[in-house]
Amino acid sequence: MLELKKGHRQKPTNSLFGLRVAGLKVRFVTNTTKESKGFLLNRLNKLGFAIEGSEIFSSLTAARQLIEKKKSNPILLLENEALEDFKGIPTKEGQPNCVVIGLAPSMFTYEVLNTAFRAVLDGATIIAIHKGRYYKRADGLALGPGPFVAALEYATNRTAVTVGKPEKSFFLSAFEDLKVNPEEVVMIGDDVRDDVEGAVKAGLFAILVKTGKYRTGDEEIAISLSAVAVKDFAAAVDHVLSNRR
């Protein structure tokens, strides 16, 4: 599985082709919550990635599945680009019973968060699409949704339900349709906590790439988790192909 995010600058087209030629199935997993799956797919295809929509598994998808399962009436703290993945979700009149939080900088104002705070006090569940502490923008690292989820948890004394990485259920759901065991799956990503640690806890083998969100010293954490750290995506693919059983 490969991790994808908004702002991804690598173009691993040749390496991706190598995986496909080797007969390996590929899934792209992402905690990106600022844009819908369709928006992400179009952007990546324009960058030269040959990806099918069925190969992308998003934390937005996981959140929608949970909302539908529980027949919730949500408050959606999401950017407009992400709301496409929630089309058809009925927003009934009356008291909301869950607050869904993604990466939505335009929504993280005092008034909006205070509305969410009051809803949780009245019994609404907090659904964190993920608890990423930070992400990488063109101008550097920036706060992720995690700190805002933590603020609501602290203020209400409630614990959020998390659906994205690093949750075990997220990783297992991403390749459920492939009918393979966790130990047969390799996760490649640049976040030592959400990608590597989460994957290892789910029973996958993990490879940390020293690009994107990677920080000096992360490789030591990865190695302590019995994972591997390599230079970039191409090196990760080389490792996968050279260590096939």
UniProtKB/TrEMBL annotation:
The UniProt record lists the keyword Ligase: no
Coiled-coil features, chain-numbered ranges: none
Keywords: Magnesium, Metal-binding
GO cellular component: cytoplasm
Cofactor needs: Mg(2+)
Family matches, as InterPro entries: HAD-like_sf, HAD-SF_hydro_IIA, HAD_sf, LHPP/HDHD2
Entry GO MF terms: metal ion binding; phosphatase activity
Superkingdom of origin: Eukaryota
Family: Belongs to the HAD-like hydrolase superfamily.
Name of the protein this chain belongs to: Haloacid dehalogenase-like hydrolase domain-containing protein 2
